[in-house]
């Protein structure tokens, strides 16, 4: 993350000063597993500054716009409960063939957490996208899991990469269920997860599927579009993400994408939920038992 100017720092300080007001208004103080209430037992000033800067960057350091977006995000998180979607709820195994969260420790700055979304594995769009609520809770859960591997105190691992692979895609037209699911997901990420992506790859897109990229581009900001990379050949991905990725993407790893999937229970990388996320999930579990 690039350094900020003195003028931008003033906006950062201003938004941090507004946090108690925003928390009180939303009646909610959690953002990506971290506490935003400065008086809270789990408050981390360094993490909060990183998160505040993301909202400001997404709004070109306009304090009022960033404040509005953050306020809406807190209210949405209170209602949707994305932490539960990521770490408490059981999702249908049919989704497992689509998304693969991976961790590449040796990769360049902010390319260590990579989520592969292999839509070419989808043979029945209605089965995946037909129930919008189930699809969104699963998809947002994947995002929340990816975020927990990030480190908002480390500028080299404070954002992630997403890759969408359309090889062997079986549906050549925009199915209504696919359209609804895709639009809803894009809107949620754009509105409530600003500046968490360093790059977004669209790979193995033949000309006949150019509508995929055009559709996605319609619903994101210009700054987000600048992070898009469209690759006709999936093996070119290694030119950007290095040799640790699977051979099908041009890497040298002997492991398949499935074998590289990040195991949150048995990972070589020391992983644990943020303290506040663990506290909130434990509290929710206890309340449900009562």
Automatic annotation (TrEMBL):
GO molecular function annotations of the record: heme binding; metal ion binding; phosphatidylinositol transfer activity
Swiss-Prot/TrEMBL cofactor(s): heme b
Major place of residence: cytoplasm
Keyword 4Fe-4S tagged: no
Compartments reported by the entry: Cytoplasm; Endoplasmic reticulum membrane; Microsome membrane
Catalytic activity: a 1,2-diacyl-sn-glycero-3-phospho-(1D-myo-inositol)(in) = a 1,2-diacyl-sn-glycero-3-phospho-(1D-myo-inositol)(out)
GO cellular component labels: cortical endoplasmic reticulum; cytosol; endoplasmic reticulum membrane; plasma membrane
Classification via PROSITE patterns: CRAL_TRIO
Cited CDD domains: SEC14
GO BP annotation list: Golgi to plasma membrane protein transport; phosphatidylinositol metabolic process; regulation of establishment of cell polarity; regulation of exocytosis
Domain CRAL-TRIO: from-to ranges: 133-257
Membrane listed as a keyword: yes
InterPro entries, per the entry: CRAL-TRIO_dom, CRAL-TRIO_dom_sf, CRAL/TRIO_N_dom, CRAL/TRIO_N_dom_sf, Sfh5
Cross-referenced Pfam families: CRAL_TRIO, CRAL_TRIO_N
Domain of life, source organism: Eukaryota
Any coiled-coil regions, as ranges: none
Entry membrane topology: Peripheral membrane protein
Keywords per UniProt: Cytoplasm, Endoplasmic reticulum, Heme, Iron, Lipid transport, Membrane, Metal-binding, Microsome, Transport
Family membership: Belongs to the SFH5 family.
Stated role: Non-classical phosphatidylinositol (PtdIns) transfer protein (PITP), which exhibits PtdIns-binding/transfer activity in the absence of detectable PtdCho-binding/transfer activity. Regulates PtdIns(4,5)P2 homeostasis at the plasma membrane. Heme-binding protein that may play a role in organic oxidant-induced stress responses.
Protein's recorded name: Phosphatidylinositol transfer protein SFH5
Natural source organism: Pachysolen tannophilus NRRL Y-2460
Lineage of origin: Eukaryota, Fungi, Dikarya, Ascomycota, Saccharomycotina
